[in-house]
Write a structure and sequence with these properties.
- The structure is a single chain.
- With about 220 residues, the chain is of the alpha/beta class.
- The protein has one domain: P-loop containing nucleotide triphosphate hydrolases (Rossmann fold, 3-Layer(aba) Sandwich).
- About 50% of the residues lie in helices and about 10% in strands.
- The chain is built from nine helices and five strands.
- Strands 2-3-1-4-5 form a five-stranded parallel beta sheet, with helices on both faces.
- Helix 1 packs across helix 9 and helix 7 packs across helix 8.
- The relative contact order is 0.22.
- Bound molecules: cytidine-5'-monophosphate (C5P).
Length: about 220
């Protein structure tokens, strides 16, 4: 049942921004001892690279940076700003950039460090492109206003100066761009489990995920 190469447990999650996928992916990773990659952070990393290197931004630069990227680079607090999110969503439309990111994601998904039982990745094209053969596929979503409120609260706790209206507009624009772009658009596949977190607590959401996973894993 597990991945042929190393008997891995593989979990793929797609979701629009601020739907709670990251929180659930972290809970999954902890509970099942899986390597976790928040793939949005890689696009944010490149988005920030673009904002900081307008004149010298090139595929070579991206490739060089991604080739030596460390998980700790993705923990940079600067990646959490709204400007970086917008920049990420713009560069994420580019096929060449998606191909560069794809190679790194494949390594994380199918060759995670030995101490892990497998991997869990979340993003926009994880089920549709990156891990089509994942053992578990979840599409996590929530109403736009709920997501905007959650993201607004996160920004507030990070002391970012932004209004609720700006957050709402930014999420709406990103949803539009991420769902309608040519390469790796966000969409729900028939074979994925839909979870709407609008009225679900983190705990209740994770309970649903565990029910699906434990059944198949015979835990
Ligand atoms: O998930 P997060 O909001 O951090 O992602 C930032 C942006 O990166 C998204 O709006 C999307 O355009 C892009 N992204 C993507 N494919 C992924 C993950 C993120 O295109 N797998």
């Amino acid at each position: 049942m597990r991945n042929k190469k190393r008997n891995l447990i593989t979990v793929a999650i797609d979701s629009p921004a601020a739907a709670g996928a990251g929180t659930q992916a972290k809970l999954i990773s902890k509970h099942y001892n899986l390597f976790y990659l928040d793939t949005g952070k890689i696009y944010r990393y490149i988005g920030l690279l673009k904002l900081n290197n307008k004149k010298v931004f090139s595929y070579q630069l991206i490739e060089r940076k991604i080739n030596k990227i460390k998980i700790s680079d993705l923990k940079n607090k600067k990646l959490l700003s709204n400007d970086v999110a917008i920049s990420a969503s713009k560069i994420a439309k580019n096929k060449k950039i998606r191909d560069i990111v794809h190679r790194f994601q494949q390594l994380c998904a199918y060759s995670p460090p030995k101490k892990f039982n497998g991997s869990v990745l979340d993003g926009r094209d994880i089920i549709t492109v990156q891990m089509k053969d994942a053992m578990f596929k979840f599409y996590i979503t929530a109403n736009l206003s709920v997501r905007a409120k959650r993201r607004f609260d996160e920004y507030k706790s990070l002391k970012k100066k932004i209004t609720y209206k700006e957050v709402l507009k930014s999420l709406k624009n990103r949803d539009n761009s991420d769902k309608n772009r040519k390469y790796g658009p966000l969409k729900k596949t028939k074979d994925s489990v839909l979870i709407n977190t609008s009225k679900l607590s983190k705990k209740a959401c994770f309970k649903r995920i565990r029910a699906v996973m434990d059944k198949k894993l015979n835990y």
